[in-house]
């Protein structure tokens, strides 16, 4: 390799690293600004030009957890989103397996009907759900939002997991059944471990959709079952926005998702690309 080619290759590598670092800083800056603003006073936040060096304060977090009762909302969000994600993943994965492996008459139509639930705008269903919840006496309860979020995430799980299951060779399952496994044992011991990357990627996406959902949570709750997005919306005052309080709420809302992604990161890259060329 000539010196010119070596230098050109080195410059290309340096340029790629510089662009990657610049891109990472560009996307990380809003996160830094939100986190730093959560420790600023309202005077420091509204200062112009922006203040980079400041005395940190926990007043925003204190107001969030004492005045707005964010702790109860955090527990509600964890309970509701955890249960709804688990239900959607369990039911959706089994439905996807049936659609991918069994000969069901009209299964393409059935799959489309499942997907049509996802096409329905939430604003269309929230009023009927409100009326039904009032009549059944389940308004402002975690169970109502759990059912709503599970039904909302179910079509996504079915369609995504169906593709992942179709990518697994059917001969592997046939070999397990020849060795004496039942259909369920084959699914549990053979297919499910191979689906872990897809399950992780799908679960993270379903969890994030439910965790950040605001419309249903604001319309179907009053006091007892309020979630974090509803509490965070209280930072918007009639005449102004409490930026410090909103930033603190944003940090608290982001942490569970960040932790979940870090726990699942070993599966996410493969899971997000597995089945990408087949649909």
UniProtKB/TrEMBL annotation:
InterPro entries: BP-dep_ABC_trans_perm, MetI-like, MetI-like_sf
UniProt domain ABC transmembrane type-1: residue ranges: 74-264
Keyword flag Kinase: no
Protein name as it appears in the record: Multiple sugar transport system permease protein
Membrane topology note: Multi-pass membrane protein
Alphabetized PANTHER family for the sequence: ABC TRANSPORTER PERMEASE PROTEIN, MALTOSE TRANSPORT SYSTEM PERMEASE-RELATED
A GO CC term attached to the entry: plasma membrane
Chain segments annotated as transmembrane: 12-33, 73-97, 109-131, 143-165, 186-211, 240-263
Record keywords, A-Z: Cell membrane, Membrane, Sugar transport, Transmembrane, Transmembrane helix, Transport
Domain of life: Bacteria
Compartments in which it is found: Cell membrane
Family of the protein in this entry: Belongs to the binding-protein-dependent transport system permease family.
GO biological process, any: transmembrane transport
Broad class of where this protein is predominantly found: membrane
């Amino acid at each position: 390799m000539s010196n010119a080619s070596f230098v050109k290759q080195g410059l290309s590598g340096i340029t790629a690293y510089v662009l990657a670092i610049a891109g990472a800083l560009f996307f990380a800056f809003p996160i830094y600004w939100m986190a730093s603003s959560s420790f600023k006073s309202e005077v420091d936040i509204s200062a112009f030009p922006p203040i980079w060096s400041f005395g940190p304060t926990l007043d925003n977090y204190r107001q969030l957890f004492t005045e707005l009762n964010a702790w109860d909302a955090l527990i509600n969000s964890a309970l509701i989103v955890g249960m709804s994600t688990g239900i959607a993943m369990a039911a959706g994965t089994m439905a996807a397996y049936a659609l991918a492996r069994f000969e069901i008459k009209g299964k393409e139509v059935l799959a489309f009907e499942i997907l049509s639930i996802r096409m329905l705008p939430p604003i269309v269903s929230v009023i009927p759900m409100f009326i039904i919840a009032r009549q059944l006496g389940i308004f402002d309860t975690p169970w109502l939002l759990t059912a709503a979020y599970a039904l909302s995430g179910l079509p996504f799980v079915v369609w995504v997991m169906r593709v992942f299951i179709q990518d697994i060779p059917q001969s592997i399952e046939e070999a397990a059944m020849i060795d004496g496994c039942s259909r369920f044992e084959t699914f549990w011991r053979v297919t499910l471990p191979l689906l872990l990357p897809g399950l992780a990627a799908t679960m993270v996406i379903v969890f994030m959709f439910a965790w950040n959902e605001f419309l249903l949570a604001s319309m179907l709750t009053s006091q007892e079952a309020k979630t974090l997005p509803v509490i965070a919306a209280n930072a918007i005052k009639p005449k102004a926005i409490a930026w410090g309080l909103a930033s603190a709420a944003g940090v608290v809302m982001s942490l569970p998702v960040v932790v979940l992604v870090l726990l699942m990161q070993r599966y996410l890259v493969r899971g997000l690309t597995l089945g990408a060329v087949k649909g």
